[in-house]
Amino acid sequence: MTSLIKRNASDxxxxxxxxxxxxxxxxxPGGIGQQARLARAAAYDTFLRGLLPEREGVALLAVGGLxxxxxxxxxxxxxxxxxxxxxxTDELAASVWYPxxxxxxxxxxxxxxxxxxxxxxxxxxxxxxxxxxxxxxxxDRALADALIRTAADHWRRTAVRQLPGLRExxxxxxxxxxxxxFLLEGDLKEAAGGLRDVGLLRAISAAxxxxxxxxxxxxxxxxxxxxxxxxxxxVGRRVDRLVAQERDGVARLLGLEDSDALMRRVAxxxxxxxxxxxxxxxxxxxxxxxxxxxxxxxxxxxxVARDVVEHDGELVLARTAIGAxxxxxxxxxxxxxxxxxxxxxxxxxxxxxxxxxxxxPAPWPAEARAALTTLLGAGPGLVPAWETCDRYGLVDGWLPxxxxxxxxxxxxxxxxxxxxxxxVQTAHEASLHAREVDRPDLLLLxxxxxxxxxxxxxxxxxxGVPLAEAVATxxxxxxxxxxxxxxxxxxxxxxxxxxxxRDLADPVTIASVAEAxxxxxxxxxxxxLVRADAAATGPAAWSDWKGRLVAELVARVxxxxxxxxxxxxxxxxPALLAGPLPVVHLTGDRVAVAAADRRxxxxxxxxxxxxxxxxxxxxxxxxxxxxxxxxxRVQPRYGLPPDPVPLRADLRRAxxxxxxxxxxxxxxxxxxxxxxxxxxxxxxREAATDAVLLELRAADAAGLLYRVTCxxxxxxxxxxxxxxxxxxxDVVDAFYLVGGWPDDATRARxxxxxxxxx
Length: 758
Description:
InterPro entries: ACT-like_dom_sf, ACT_dom, HD/PDEase_dom, HD_domain, NT_sf, PII_UdlTrfase/GS_AdlTrfase, UTase/UR
Structural class: alpha+beta
Mean pLDDT: 88
Low-confidence stretches: 1-22, 291-295, 669-675
Keywords: Hydrolase, Magnesium, Multifunctional enzyme, Nucleotidyltransferase, Repeat, Transferase
Protein name: Bifunctional uridylyltransferase/uridylyl-removing enzyme
Number of strands: 15
Strand order of the largest sheet: 8-9-11-10-14-15-13-12
Region (Uridylyltransferase): 1-303
Helix content: 40-55%
Domain HD: 419-526
Distance between the termini: 55 Å
Shape: globular
Radius of gyration: 32 Å
């Protein structure tokens, strides 16, 4: 029968279809929820019992998901063939494994005696944890019970010693997969707070170290299992990463309102698991240190800050703080001490603060405001301290707005974190620039609040201004400083947007930014906030080139603010004005070309660069003394720089008018057209000194700049500069068209030409 199953499954093209047929033929039901998982485990048990005849001294054990009866729709089978040294074990194992493989099921298997299994478990903590889930499927029950009992007893006796090594392995896994509570596309199994961490909690509970599987953890575990079931059913195959395109379908299968509701639920469950594991590891640390001191040893109490002491590796309240009327700033001061010392707050202390610490008055006292600044500026200790306080509801007491921001997904692909984690991470990153600004306290608060308007209708930079100013006023900032916080929120995207989309040599660009910013102190705050925001967003949000552009813009605006004089545009490269034509210079990320003055040179250069898989980030075209000059900044499209010899040769031939190169460029560019949402053209009337600005918003594609500049050239427009800003799969390309504001008919004609080229 199994051969027929495999043959029928292979007749279907899709992996998911094949898996579905296999599961149906073996008798494994689909479905979501605990009852469906139990039914799948029962069906697998029935299938496996038919493969191993009853025989003394042999037992088939299930570990992993089948051992726990938590089988996902498309999970693996983890099996151990246990024997007591009986002859013919290899042949017996083959008679079990091959039918499973023939059925198309994934299998992780081993063949061992009790002694061999225990020996491997002693050397490999992962195997030791796996044996805690071992369950007899069929065969010699006494043999199976001997291994299961002995493995559990060995774990209880050695767990405290083995947990430090296990924690190192776990930390490495977390670093590789991130934190499920804050990721937009997290791995439900491997990420911190995921299903594998529940296995660790189960092991710690089995060792008797602490009650790690409280009702909240059990409920979170079941919901995470349901989410994985729905993900498998949605995709039709084994997958653990909850990617964006599958979230809506998974949410529907779980009966949730939308993908945002799904993300919030996953984040909450992952937080519950992560917090429980932190508590469990700390309990193990205390138990281990207590044993090393001996029964008579008592951990000392060391003062850390006012009303805060360290006790056994955790921060607790001083006895005087508990006995007196609590200070409203006490929870903030405890959080600041935890962030500064990078020590955890004891669970009982957090519960006490949540229950008895009175609410902060409005405006806040100076002590509370200072504690918040210390907390936000604490560096690496900020995130864990903030997360602990958020777990117990303390953050909602400080900032009622946090309830809306918590676990809010961000749907821009450049973001790696949920909104709440992004804001805290931005504050952490901002602390690295605190010495560069006159008011580091305002930088830290602005970083925490810069995206407070997200999740509400409208432009979040505008919507967030009154919200941020209200928070600043409530915590006790003077009106002028609260207004400055609002300015940081409103302008936090100004510098990167202008630097990547406008001509920095144009005086109008510098004047407009200087007018918006107002003074150098605000400029410094925005510059620091931009870098912190980008670092907290993800690697796609920043690059060395973008950093240089922003720094150049800041330097030019600073000159204008300090002197009142707009900086002069840079002079053309003298090397392009001398020597026979054409002139081609390749230096790092700069490509400079000089040729006989003619139209279309920018399009020709852009196309040649696209042919060599180079992305143009900025381009400038000008005419000086009868020469057409084009200077471009470029970066490799696929990470590897092109060979400069053929690139230089193609550029020389192309700018000299070689028709064969032009034809090759057109054919390659047409083949490379991208897809995406409908493109859009936006006009800007007074954004340049001697030009109007045509801004194209479209899907990114190789050769896009070449096609658009060709279209503009053929439509009679003269492009003197172009700026390309890539935002994930989209681009915002700005083209400076020489001349005055075109009439309606001309604008319509140019717009149609550009859209046709896209």
